[in-house]
Amino acid sequence: MFLGILLVLVSMVLGARVVAAADQTVEIWALREDVRLEPAMPLTKDALVAKKVQFTSQEDADRYVSAREEIPEGARMLRSVGGEEFLPRDSWTDDPDRQLEDAPIPVLPSLLPKSLRAGDRVDVYFVASEDDAFPPKAAVVGATDIIVVNIPEGDGISGGESSATIRLARDKESGGMSLEDLVAHAANAKAVVVKHVAPEPK
């Protein structure tokens, strides 16, 4: 009888440990459902949501960023991560990128796409200041496949001239003028920003 009671107690203890282990979950950062981040795009806490996950090993858990960790200012993506995906540690960095340069480009509000957001990739064209035709009589390619860092808000885009700060990614995807030529053209011509739009799924 004593042996039977002992076996019952042991099974109860083991069962409690299994249940406790099953309840040991961790919170990690994941991208919000409506967010997709591409290389060189900024990473901020606004793009993230905490999710509870149970990992089978500490090694697996360490591959992702704990929700207890703060995302440092200046963080940017190194590779693509889609909506609701967990945020891998090796997908972003806050180290300075010597290949990225910021240039403020004056843009008329009417020549900015209404759907433009920080992180979008765009092309920039320059047309003569007096050229009001549509399409323009002539346009010069200023930069291609560059990344928008921020755009004017509120009254900054309601009228007059506004300024969009663009980040020039000096990588194989980007092209166009040198930074010096881009700034020079921006001072003497109208900038037209064209946003890259993904094709609709068939």
Q: Assembly type of the shown chains?
A: single chain
What is the chain-wise order of helices and strands? HEEHEEEEEEEHE
Please indicate the count of domains: 2
Query: Percent range for helical residues?
Result: 10-25%
Please, what is the average pLDDT?
A: 76
- Strand runs, count: 10
User: What are the segments in which pLDDT stays under 50 over at least 5 consecutive residues?
Assistant: 6-11, 13-23, 155-159
Q: Tally the helices: what do you get?
A: 3
Distance between the termini: 71 Å
Radius of gyration: 25 Å
Largest sheet: 6 strands, antiparallel
Overall outline? elongated
SS-based structural class?
alpha+beta
Describe it:
The chain is of the alpha+beta class and 202 residues long. It folds into two domains: 21-93, Alpha-Beta Complex (Type Iii Antifreeze Protein Isoform Hplc 12); 100-195, no CATH class. The protein is built from three helices and ten strands; from the N terminus they run αββαβββββββαβ. The chain has helices spanning 2-23, 58-61, 179-188, and strands spanning 26-31, 48-53, 76-77, 92-93, 100-107, 121-127, 140-150, 162-169, 175-176, 190-195. Strands 5, 6, 7, 8, 9 and 10 form a six-stranded antiparallel β-sheet that branches. It has a two-stranded antiparallel sheet with strand order 1-2. The chain has a two-stranded antiparallel sheet with strand order 3-4. The longest helix is centred in the first third of the chain and has 22 residues, at 2-23. It is elongated and about 65 Å long.
